[in-house]
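Reading a protein record of the kind used here takes only a little practice. Think of the row as the fold of the chain written in a discrete alphabet. A record is reproduced here so that you can trace the correspondence yourselves:
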Amino acid sequence: MTSSTLNSFEDTMIRHFDSSLFSSLWSQRITLQYSHSDRISKKSAPPLLLLILISFGATGCDIYGQDEYEEQYVVESYLIANRNMPEVRLSTTAPFNENYNFNEQAVPNAVVRIHRYDENRQRDKTYTYEEQNRGVYLPQTGDINDLVVPRLTYRLEIEIPDDNYHRIEAETSVPDTFSVREVIRDRAYYQSPSQLEFTITRNRTNGRQNYFIYATEALEPLEDNLTQFWKDAVDDYEEARRIRTTIINEENFDVNPDGTLTLRMPWIGIAFYGPNIISTFSIDDNSYDFFRSQPVQTGGGAGTLSPGEIQNIIYHVNGAIGLFGSMSVLDIKVIVDRPDL
């Protein structure tokens, strides 16, 4: 199960600048969970197709049973503000007793469109998609370089002729962009009281606070550069080369008098000494609901429900499961110096 919606979403976050958003670039995900008081826990996130099979197999308070398995479509697509229109991946789930392989589960010959709506909810453009590889769809050649517009709404519509024109629909509103107002500190000694710190503008949302995810990529991921915490936490240092946090609410940061936000990177989010890229993602409602419901399914959060009371992961997709989400992103290069011994 190396290819999944969760894996692809994380690949998109970590390698959002890569032209291939859905390549499986890392096999083990390490998530960091922390609050403003810096209480921290870590876990490996399981592939999403396993989570999907758990969640859609449960009806009400029933636990998934193998004889209850019903194949469902899985859709994956993520829009990034001011980046090219994304690809759309379409596949089906696999039973517990079978390994999930996207190429085997991919769904061909679908009719895929994404409609764009302006801020007055008027449709102003339709993107027609073509199948590039089995189950992988890209905008037609003339639209391939169109950029995703922040603060606009995009609606995904899929029809599957081979399944009596089964329809799949989903919608996302792209978060507004934001920028660095001031880099307070982009170089520091590891675990110094002076954290990596920067001030960003506050992006506009639909009447709610912003939700962020940090992602860190080490630019010199050498074993000798691994911090002691991560040496103890992982079996293979490559596992920590790219890591991300769980959702962080806007209220966890300092709101300045001018309306900007001051963000401080917790040291637990740095795995390697040397240069790193810190990406800050502002995520849409679909991604927020997916990630906040996912830990309840997997034990990744502080959930107290017994297995028979597990709630479904929140997908916001009609006619399928998966994630049609969007985000805006800001990258900052930092340097973490090895502390003097």
In short: The first strand starts at residue 29 and ends at 34. Confidence is low (pLDDT under 50) at residues 1-6, 12-66, 296-310. The radius of gyration is 20 Å. The CA atoms of residues 127 and 142 lie 10 Å apart.
